[in-house]
Amino acid sequence: MRILITNDDGIDAPGLKVLEEIATQLAGDDGEVWTVAPAFEQSGVGHAISFTRPMMISQMGPRRFAAEGSPADCVLAAVHDVMQGNPPDLVLSGVNRGNNSAENALYSGTLGGAMEAALQGLRAVALSQYYGPEIRDLDDPFEAARLHGLATLNALLERGVWTRDDYGIFYNINFPPVPAAAVKGLKVAPQGFRRDMGFGVQPVHSPSGRRFLWVTGAPQQQPTVEGTDADLNLKGYISVTPMRADLTAHDALEALRAIE
After folding, report:
1. What b-and-e string marks burial along 157-172, b requiring 16 or more CB atoms within 10 Å of the CB?
2. Which parts are annotated binding residues for a divalent metal cation?
3. pLDDT tens profile 81-136
4. 0.70 surpassed by pTM
5. Which segments are annotated as binding site?
6. Which domains does the chain have, with CATH numbers?
Protein backbone atom coordinates (compact mmCIF):
# COMPACT_ATOMS: atom_id res chain seq x y z
CA MET A 1 0.00 0.00 0.00
CA ARG A 2 1.16 3.51 -0.87
CA ILE A 3 0.23 5.95 1.89
CA LEU A 4 0.49 9.74 1.89
CA ILE A 5 0.68 11.48 5.26
CA THR A 6 0.25 15.16 6.04
CA ASN A 7 -0.81 17.33 8.99
CA ASP A 8 -1.46 20.92 10.04
CA ASP A 9 1.04 21.17 12.91
CA GLY A 10 4.04 21.27 10.57
CA ILE A 11 6.53 18.77 9.24
CA ASP A 12 8.54 18.67 12.50
CA ALA A 13 5.50 18.08 14.74
CA PRO A 14 5.66 15.09 17.10
CA GLY A 15 2.20 13.93 16.01
CA LEU A 16 3.43 13.52 12.45
CA LYS A 17 6.17 11.22 13.71
CA VAL A 18 3.50 9.14 15.45
CA LEU A 19 1.50 9.00 12.22
CA GLU A 20 4.59 7.96 10.28
CA GLU A 21 5.03 5.01 12.66
CA ILE A 22 1.40 3.99 12.26
CA ALA A 23 1.48 4.41 8.48
CA THR A 24 4.67 2.38 8.16
CA GLN A 25 3.05 -0.53 9.98
CA LEU A 26 -0.11 -0.18 7.91
CA ALA A 27 1.75 -0.01 4.59
CA GLY A 28 3.66 -3.22 5.31
CA ASP A 29 7.08 -4.37 4.13
CA ASP A 30 6.20 -3.90 0.46
CA GLY A 31 4.48 -0.55 0.92
CA GLU A 32 5.58 3.06 0.84
CA VAL A 33 4.93 6.03 3.08
CA TRP A 34 5.20 9.47 1.50
CA THR A 35 5.17 12.69 3.52
CA VAL A 36 4.08 16.06 2.15
CA ALA A 37 3.45 18.34 5.10
CA PRO A 38 3.41 22.09 5.79
CA ALA A 39 6.78 23.69 6.35
CA PHE A 40 5.23 25.73 9.19
CA GLU A 41 2.27 25.26 11.51
CA GLN A 42 -1.08 25.68 9.77
CA SER A 43 -3.52 25.02 12.61
CA GLY A 44 -6.99 26.47 12.08
CA VAL A 45 -6.71 27.00 8.33
CA GLY A 46 -9.51 24.55 7.56
CA HIS A 47 -9.75 23.61 3.90
CA ALA A 48 -7.93 26.72 2.67
CA ILE A 49 -5.75 26.57 -0.45
CA SER A 50 -3.06 29.00 -1.59
CA PHE A 51 -5.03 30.17 -4.60
CA THR A 52 -3.49 33.65 -4.86
CA ARG A 53 0.20 32.87 -4.31
CA PRO A 54 2.67 30.14 -5.22
CA MET A 55 4.11 27.84 -2.59
CA MET A 56 7.66 26.63 -2.35
CA ILE A 57 8.16 22.89 -1.94
CA SER A 58 11.41 21.32 -0.75
CA GLN A 59 12.54 17.72 -0.54
CA MET A 60 13.70 16.95 3.01
CA GLY A 61 14.62 13.31 2.47
CA PRO A 62 13.51 10.15 0.65
CA ARG A 63 9.74 10.45 0.01
CA ARG A 64 9.63 13.42 2.41
CA PHE A 65 8.64 16.96 1.33
CA ALA A 66 7.78 20.25 3.02
CA ALA A 67 5.47 22.73 1.32
CA GLU A 68 4.89 26.35 2.31
CA GLY A 69 1.13 25.94 2.25
CA SER A 70 -1.90 24.47 3.96
CA PRO A 71 -2.64 20.76 4.44
CA ALA A 72 -5.01 20.92 1.45
CA ASP A 73 -2.16 22.47 -0.55
CA CYS A 74 0.07 19.60 0.52
CA VAL A 75 -2.41 17.02 -0.76
CA LEU A 76 -2.66 18.87 -4.07
CA ALA A 77 1.14 19.04 -4.28
CA ALA A 78 1.44 15.33 -3.58
CA VAL A 79 -1.24 14.17 -6.02
CA HIS A 80 -0.38 16.49 -8.90
CA ASP A 81 3.40 16.86 -8.52
CA VAL A 82 5.31 14.73 -6.02
CA MET A 83 3.35 11.51 -6.71
CA GLN A 84 1.99 12.48 -10.11
CA GLY A 85 0.87 9.49 -12.15
CA ASN A 86 1.00 7.10 -9.19
CA PRO A 87 -1.34 8.46 -6.50
CA PRO A 88 -1.56 7.08 -2.97
CA ASP A 89 -3.97 4.32 -1.97
CA LEU A 90 -4.73 6.13 1.28
CA VAL A 91 -4.21 9.62 2.73
CA LEU A 92 -3.76 10.09 6.49
CA SER A 93 -3.74 13.53 8.11
CA GLY A 94 -2.50 14.09 11.68
CA VAL A 95 -1.96 13.05 14.35
CA ASN A 96 -3.19 16.45 15.46
CA ARG A 97 -2.11 17.84 18.82
CA GLY A 98 -5.54 18.43 20.30
CA ASN A 99 -9.02 17.27 19.44
CA ASN A 100 -10.94 17.89 16.25
CA SER A 101 -14.24 16.79 17.71
CA ALA A 102 -17.48 18.79 17.57
CA GLU A 103 -17.21 22.29 16.08
CA ASN A 104 -13.40 22.12 16.06
CA ALA A 105 -13.73 19.96 12.94
CA LEU A 106 -14.95 22.98 10.98
CA TYR A 107 -11.74 24.95 11.58
CA SER A 108 -9.30 22.06 11.36
CA GLY A 109 -6.47 22.03 8.85
CA THR A 110 -6.07 18.35 9.70
CA LEU A 111 -9.56 17.68 8.38
CA GLY A 112 -8.91 20.08 5.50
CA GLY A 113 -6.17 17.78 4.24
CA ALA A 114 -8.40 14.71 4.47
CA MET A 115 -11.27 16.56 2.82
CA GLU A 116 -9.12 17.57 -0.13
CA ALA A 117 -7.97 13.99 -0.54
CA ALA A 118 -11.59 12.84 -0.65
CA LEU A 119 -12.37 15.49 -3.27
CA GLN A 120 -9.47 14.07 -5.29
CA GLY A 121 -11.17 10.66 -5.19
CA LEU A 122 -8.86 9.15 -2.56
CA ARG A 123 -9.58 7.30 0.65
CA ALA A 124 -8.77 9.66 3.51
CA VAL A 125 -8.72 9.72 7.31
CA ALA A 126 -7.97 12.53 9.78
CA LEU A 127 -6.56 11.55 13.18
CA SER A 128 -6.39 13.72 16.30
CA GLN A 129 -5.32 13.22 19.91
CA TYR A 130 -7.60 14.85 22.48
CA TYR A 131 -5.62 16.58 25.23
CA GLY A 132 -6.67 16.75 28.87
CA PRO A 133 -5.54 16.50 32.50
CA GLU A 134 -5.09 12.72 32.45
CA ILE A 135 -2.42 12.80 29.74
CA ARG A 136 -0.84 16.18 30.39
CA ASP A 137 2.08 14.72 32.35
CA LEU A 138 2.60 11.55 30.34
CA ASP A 139 6.00 11.08 28.72
CA ASP A 140 4.07 10.43 25.50
CA PRO A 141 0.82 12.43 25.30
CA PHE A 142 0.12 10.69 21.96
CA GLU A 143 0.14 7.29 23.66
CA ALA A 144 -3.51 6.48 22.94
CA ALA A 145 -3.15 7.35 19.25
CA ARG A 146 0.19 5.56 18.94
CA LEU A 147 -1.02 2.30 20.46
CA HIS A 148 -4.57 2.21 19.07
CA GLY A 149 -4.11 3.95 15.73
CA LEU A 150 -3.19 0.91 13.66
CA ALA A 151 -6.09 -1.23 14.86
CA THR A 152 -8.54 1.63 14.32
CA LEU A 153 -7.35 2.20 10.76
CA ASN A 154 -7.39 -1.51 9.98
CA ALA A 155 -11.00 -1.70 11.17
CA LEU A 156 -11.94 1.19 8.89
CA LEU A 157 -10.13 -0.25 5.88
CA GLU A 158 -11.70 -3.66 6.35
CA ARG A 159 -15.25 -2.69 7.31
CA GLY A 160 -15.63 1.03 6.63
CA VAL A 161 -17.83 2.64 4.00
CA TRP A 162 -15.80 4.02 1.11
CA THR A 163 -17.54 5.77 -1.76
CA ARG A 164 -16.33 7.22 -5.03
CA ASP A 165 -19.23 9.59 -5.62
CA ASP A 166 -18.76 13.34 -6.09
CA TYR A 167 -18.45 14.04 -2.37
CA GLY A 168 -16.86 10.86 -1.13
CA ILE A 169 -16.83 9.88 2.53
CA PHE A 170 -13.75 10.59 4.62
CA TYR A 171 -13.26 9.85 8.30
CA ASN A 172 -12.56 11.89 11.42
CA ILE A 173 -10.93 9.87 14.23
CA ASN A 174 -10.39 11.36 17.69
CA PHE A 175 -8.45 9.48 20.37
CA PRO A 176 -9.58 10.16 23.95
CA PRO A 177 -7.59 12.18 26.51
CA VAL A 178 -6.64 9.13 28.58
CA PRO A 179 -3.62 6.81 28.76
CA ALA A 180 -3.67 4.03 26.18
CA ALA A 181 -4.51 1.37 28.78
CA ALA A 182 -7.61 3.33 29.82
CA VAL A 183 -9.14 3.50 26.31
CA LYS A 184 -12.53 1.78 26.51
CA GLY A 185 -12.93 0.97 22.84
CA LEU A 186 -14.14 2.42 19.56
CA LYS A 187 -17.51 4.05 18.89
CA VAL A 188 -19.00 5.39 15.66
CA ALA A 189 -20.41 8.81 16.46
CA PRO A 190 -21.94 11.90 14.86
CA GLN A 191 -20.26 15.28 15.18
CA GLY A 192 -21.22 17.09 18.37
CA PHE A 193 -21.54 20.76 19.27
CA ARG A 194 -20.29 22.56 22.36
CA ARG A 195 -23.06 24.97 23.31
CA ASP A 196 -22.30 28.41 24.79
CA MET A 197 -18.70 28.04 23.70
CA GLY A 198 -16.63 28.93 20.70
CA PHE A 199 -13.90 31.15 19.38
CA GLY A 200 -13.64 34.86 20.09
CA VAL A 201 -11.04 37.61 20.12
CA GLN A 202 -8.99 39.33 22.82
CA PRO A 203 -7.57 42.79 22.03
CA VAL A 204 -3.99 43.60 23.08
CA HIS A 205 -1.65 46.51 22.46
CA SER A 206 1.93 46.13 21.31
CA PRO A 207 4.77 48.12 22.94
CA SER A 208 4.50 50.56 20.03
CA GLY A 209 0.85 51.17 20.82
CA ARG A 210 -0.62 49.28 17.89
CA ARG A 211 -3.81 47.35 18.53
CA PHE A 212 -3.94 43.63 17.75
CA LEU A 213 -6.49 40.89 18.25
CA TRP A 214 -5.65 37.41 19.50
CA VAL A 215 -8.16 34.70 18.61
CA THR A 216 -9.24 32.94 21.80
CA GLY A 217 -10.47 29.42 22.24
CA ALA A 218 -12.65 27.78 24.88
CA PRO A 219 -12.28 24.95 27.42
CA GLN A 220 -12.36 21.57 25.73
CA GLN A 221 -13.59 19.46 28.64
CA GLN A 222 -17.28 20.30 28.26
CA PRO A 223 -19.14 17.29 26.83
CA THR A 224 -21.46 17.49 23.87
CA VAL A 225 -24.81 15.71 23.45
CA GLU A 226 -24.67 12.12 24.66
CA GLY A 227 -23.33 9.75 22.03
CA THR A 228 -21.61 12.42 19.92
CA ASP A 229 -17.88 12.55 19.32
CA ALA A 230 -16.60 14.83 22.11
CA ASP A 231 -18.95 13.22 24.67
CA LEU A 232 -17.56 9.78 23.87
CA ASN A 233 -13.96 11.02 23.81
CA LEU A 234 -14.33 12.46 27.31
CA LYS A 235 -15.74 9.10 28.43
CA GLY A 236 -12.62 7.32 27.18
CA TYR A 237 -13.70 6.11 23.73
CA ILE A 238 -12.12 6.53 20.32
CA SER A 239 -14.68 8.25 18.09
CA VAL A 240 -14.99 7.57 14.37
CA THR A 241 -17.14 10.00 12.40
CA PRO A 242 -17.92 9.61 8.68
CA MET A 243 -17.95 12.98 6.90
CA ARG A 244 -18.55 14.54 3.48
CA ALA A 245 -17.55 17.89 2.02
CA ASP A 246 -21.13 18.44 0.80
CA LEU A 247 -22.44 21.40 2.86
CA THR A 248 -26.06 21.12 1.70
CA ALA A 249 -28.61 21.04 4.53
CA HIS A 250 -30.47 18.10 2.99
CA ASP A 251 -33.01 18.02 5.83
CA ALA A 252 -34.21 21.52 4.84
CA LEU A 253 -34.54 21.00 1.09
CA GLU A 254 -38.12 19.73 1.04
CA ALA A 255 -39.41 22.47 3.33
CA LEU A 256 -37.82 25.07 1.08
CA ARG A 257 -39.76 23.86 -1.97
CA ALA A 258 -42.48 26.29 -0.88
CA ILE A 259 -40.40 29.26 -2.03
CA GLU A 260 -40.08 27.97 -5.60
Report:
1. eeeeebeeeeebbbbb
2. 8-9, 43, 96
3. 999 999 999 999 999 999 999 999 999 999 999 999 999 999 999 999 999 999 98
4. yes
5. 8-9, 43, 96
6. 2-193+224-248 (3.40.1210.10)
